[in-house]
Amino acid sequence: MCVICDEVEPTTLLEQLISHGILIETGVDGIYGRSGAFEDVIARFEDLVTRTGASGANPGVPEVIRFPPAMNRFHFERSGYMKSFPQLAGTVHAFMGDDRGHFELLDKLQNNEDWTGQQKTTGVVLTPAACYTLYPIVAKRGPLKAEGALFDLQSYCFRHEPSKDPARMQMFRMREFVRFGKPRQVQEFRAGWLENGETMMKKLGVPIHVDLANDPFFGRSGRMLKNNQRDQGLKFEMLIPIESEEKPTACLSFNYHQDHFGTTWGLIDADGETAHTACVGFGLERVALALFKHHGFDVEAWPKAVRKVLWQ
Fold it and tell me: Where are the beta strands (DSSP E) in 141-275?
């Protein structure tokens, strides 16, 4: 007797992305392989970001730095990230036992038992945001020049929030421009990118909405921090529907840190005062997903105007 089973059509965005070979499953939610087409879209978008910055969105030519997806654990601890976002952090552990410990580890593996007891923390943690590695580096250089400083960063980042939502990956890339200087300098930088970022994204033919936002601070004190951040207008996000229309995804963020990182790291401006910082961040995977969501899985069939912007 032969039983013929009809294939189930992919219904969710994640299933469709995997079915079309855009993302590759690994068996872990939020950890995916990327196809060549996906990577090409990200490369084209990064070129667009660079061109937009060079055309006037940035106040000068930034210093370009590319960081690995891990950072100094002690810098991470000093940054205060664990006070605000312990639920997102990822640490790196390694085996540090002796021969006996190795034997015990192998025995546990063979018996399908938890073998991680022999693991201990190392001197590195997974990078939570591209700019976190930058601040102690800049502080070590000494006082800023009168014009402040500007950096162009990119890094793989990690946040522990496994999800079936493809836009909420655990490992993802973040492109950032980070501005150091006096309050007026960094606020003008952020205001410029709020305008130029919106113009840039409209050229890509995706629905966007800029809104006041807050970071996902943890716990009771986190509620107060969220309210303060919103009340002072410190964070704006550019939202694009990806997984759902009801809950659009933040794809770009525009952040004014005031003197938080300046105080934490002893960042000093040219007049000997505590420096202020601001950044604009681009979620590269999220922007690529937004483009596939709204223009389809065949990049050759995307609207000519969009292709002209990206593949010029």
Answer: 149-158, 171-181, 209-212, 235-240, 249-258
Q: Kindly report the CA angle at 76 between 72 and 82, in degrees rounded to 5?
A: 150
Yes or no: say if 194 and 278 are a contact pair by the CB < 8 Å rule. no
**Which residue, chain included where needed, has tokens 């990956």?**
169
List the 119-126 sheet strands across, edge first.
Answer: 70-72, 119-126, 91-95
Q: What is the CATH number of the domain that holds 236?
A: 3.30.930.10
Mean pLDDT score, 118-123: 93
pTM (two decimals) = 0.92
Residues 6+ apart with CB under 8 A from 228: none
Question: Could you tell me if residue 69 is left (phi over 0), alpha (psi between -120 and 50 degrees) or otherwise beta?
Answer: alpha
pLDDT tens digits, one per residue of 137-161: 999 999 999 999 999 999 999 999 9
Is residue 112 a part of any domain in this protein? Answer: no
Q: Please report whether residue 121 resides in a domain.
A: no
- Nearest Cα neighbor of 205 from 52, 55, 310 is 310
Domain-embedded: residue 40: yes
- 104 falls within a domain: no
Q: Where are the alpha helices (DSSP H) in 111-205?
A: 134-141, 183-202
Q: Give the model's pLDDT for residue 1.
A: 43
Q: How many CB atoms lie within 10 A of CB 9?
A: 8
pLDDT tens-digit profile of 241-270? 999 999 999 999 999 999 999 999 999 999
Which pLDDT score is estimated for 2?
A: 46
Q: Rounded mean pLDDT of 73-92?
A: 93
Q: Phi, psi at residue 13, to the nearest 5°?
A: -60, -40
Mean pLDDT of 293-297: 97
Q: Into how many domains does the chain fold?
A: 1
Supply the range of the domain harboring residue 232.
Answer: 35-71+128-310
